[in-house]
């Protein structure tokens, strides 16, 4: 949403300040020319009025001169006694002193000039310049054009947002109808890329939960049915047996089956609790190299060697130490169970991320099983060890919480299984 906020602020500033400044410069230039023309015309009329007033002072009959005077520019002349002018005292004093007085109305501009050696005032009326009305019309046009461009600019900005929101709604609607594989393709230029990414994470998590529920129900129906059947058979046999030694053997066997059931139920509950644990992650900078060194020292075995190769000074990620330790402990334990003699761990970097490889020289994982080994209660066909197939599912869940990835392939050197974990590096390292 940060990109959405920044782009909105940018558009508002450009639209209001940028467009406003451009239109203001254009309008001021146009209006300035019109005002200069009007000022020149008034100045010309003032000079003409002064000359006519001086001429009337020399002639005998001012009214007769005004009656026959005509002007091709539409100027009108009047002569009024000074006493008939209704003006403030200050203006009358200024006019009597020989100054020119300009009065403007809605229809015309009146230029007043006292006729020398008389008590009469010559008034020249000139029509208001046509540019004034035209200027008013142009102001409306400029204003309309400004708002039109403003709306177009906002529409151009909003069009990608509307498109992405419609796509988000379409995908969410399809997802709600049960198409759990639906995802939003996050565009390179998107105001809501964070929201789209979070939607995809949410959709993936829901799909994983639904898949886990199906696998859990399948595991419960399969793995619990077997020990229950054995317990029932043991109880039936025990009820018919009178030999104390055989009865004790049957009881011990029934207890073993009960222990298997308890272990399976605890495994199911533990895996289910992982979803609740995600809400309690405590992220902090963690040095993966130190964590792996401690795990290697703890899990050393006399008949199998564990090597750790790390050529970087620091391998810091941001995550929860408890669950990252669980992640690599499960991977290392899984490698030791299937390895014949060697387990190799290597730490590297790639495009701002930390990459950890855990490989062994065991039988490996078949290519058609590599995409399923991270699902709960799925076990490799090559595995001869007892377990419920939850360890790698826990690894996948922990990696997803830390916005990383985990893959499995055949090791090029050891020829067994090789797990590759990619985790984002810590943003700040102190």
Automatic annotation (TrEMBL):
Entry superkingdom: Bacteria
Catalytic reaction list: ATP + protein L-histidine = ADP + protein N-phospho-L-histidine
CDD domains: HAMP, HisKA
Enzyme class label: transferase
Protein topology in the membrane: Multi-pass membrane protein
InterPro entries the UniProt entry points to: 2C_sensor_his_kinase, HAMP_dom, HATPase_C_sf, HATPase_dom, His_kinase_dom, HisK_dim/P_dom, HisK_dim/P_sf, Sig_transdc_His_kin-like_C
PROSITE patterns xrefs: HAMP, HIS_KIN
Membrane-crossing segments per the record: 140-158
Name of the protein this chain belongs to: histidine kinase
Pfam families per the UniProt record, alphabetical: HAMP, HATPase_c, HisKA
Location(s) in or outside the cell: Cell membrane
Keywords: ATP-binding, Cell membrane, Kinase, Membrane, Nucleotide-binding, Phosphoprotein, Transferase, Transmembrane, Transmembrane helix
Annotated HAMP domain residues: 159-211
GO molecular function, one term: ATP binding
Histidine kinase domain residues: 219-427
Assigned EC number: 2.7.13.3
Cellular component annotations (GO), alphabetically ordered: plasma membrane
